[in-house]
Amino acid sequence: MADACPFCRLLAGIETERNRIADIVWRDERTAAFISPRWWPAAEGHVLVIPNAHVSDLEAIDEELLGAVYATVKRIAAAMPSAYGCAGTSTRQHNGAGAGQDVWHLHVHVFPRSAGDDLYARDKEYRWASPAERAPYAARLRAALMGSDPGLTPRPGT
Fold it and tell me: Which of 4, 22, 28, 39 has the smallest set of CB atoms within 10 Å of its CB?
């Protein structure tokens, strides 16, 4: 199953139009974070945080790895306001087909937010962003992550 997983392929260095190594803004031993190719109005540059190991969903992940995923979620959410100038962040995790999970590798969305953006009311208004559109968001977020703790360095693609 991991061979067919687009997130596992990205972590293995296999690029597609929707997932590029340059989209990765954070990678450590257990987790990775990358700019999502699916964008909603007023939430451009949102990030997906995943475990590096292929884990299909919330029921399949062990609590220690889940803690590592959410530590990276926290790191990304803390960097977004300085990187993007957003007023806040929201997180979202879809678990199972009935909840809208469409990639069977556990992932947590981290959205930049502003007052009145109506993000959750605009669920069907998404579009696919090009690699060129994603690149400046990845660069700004990487820079903010490096500034948040000089001892921690985002490692795209490693």
Answer: 4
